[in-house]
Amino acid sequence: SSAAEEKSITIAYCTEILDENETGYANAVQYGIDQYNARDDAKFHIEDLVKYDANGDVDTQNSQLEDCVATGVDLVILTCVDDVGNKTGAQYCIDNGVKVIDVRGGLYGTADVVCCPCAFANEAAEMRQWWEGYMSENPNTKLNIGVVFATPESTSSFVRVDWVYDFADKYDTVNVIAKDYGEWATDPTQKIVEDWIQTYPDMNLIVCANDEEALGAVNA
Predict the structure, then answer these.
(1) The dihedral of CA 40, 42, 44, 45: what is its sign?
(2) Fewer CB atoms < 10 Å away: N or C end of the chain?
(3) Pairing between β-strand 50-53 and β-strand 174-181 as defined by DSSP bridges
């Protein structure tokens, strides 16, 4: 047998909620695995991707990370439910020789490889640029903004939406009138925005940390 067949590694995809978007990302990783395994110069074989769905629960995800160690996973691609709450599970993996890639970049100093959320910063810069262009063309527009972060510990959500505060400081007619935490999810965000609609009838712009939260805002 070839060296690639003799040596194999296992990758786990551990995500907070295995929704449609995350399933798409996981499928993309599996596609990359398949492409690598098909190469003549592959130095090892990568087993089919192992997927874990924490369903938004910190303890469940920590248990799944422990399972990764117990089942001999070599590498974990981790999207934390909570950057603070899941640091224990990530550290457990590292202490037991399992490499961890932190997708959102909230585990600085913990994960072996931290994916710095520079893409999120670029998206935020583009969003701010678009709204500044809009205000230049519509200088009398009044914006009363609600901001939905993820969780207080999820630093990547700050990168995505903090631009709103600098944007509001630049214009007298732009104000942030409410903020809350949607937990990266649709249902909590929908409840938040439903309450805001009643409390702040003048609110006319909502900025969310991800697509799932945005869907909750639309549903409200």
Answers:
(1) negative
(2) N
(3) unpaired
Question: Looking at the DSSP assignment, which residues form a beta bridge with residue 75?
Answer: 11, 99
Q: Read off the amino acid at residue 215.
A: L
Whole-angstrom distance, CA of residue 98 vs CA of residue 83? 18
**Mean pLDDT per 10-residue section of the chain, whose length is 220 residues:** 67 91 90 94 93 93 98 94 88 94 76 62 80 92 94 72 90 96 90 96 92 90
DSSP structural state of residue 209: S
Alpha-carbon gap, residue 112 to 70, rounded angstroms: 19
Q: How many CB atoms lie within 10 A of CB 146?
A: 23
Domains of the chain, each with CATH number or no CATH = 3-114 (3.40.50.2300), 118-219 (3.40.50.2300)
Burial of 15 from C-beta contacts in 10 A (0-12 / 13-18 / 19+): buried
* C-alpha–C-alpha distance, residues 138 and 216, integer Å: 28
Q: For the chain, first and last CA: distance in Å?
A: 58
pTM equals: 0.62
The amino acid present at 151, given as its one-letter code, is T
CB 83 within 8 A of CB 153: yes
Amino acid symbol at 204: N
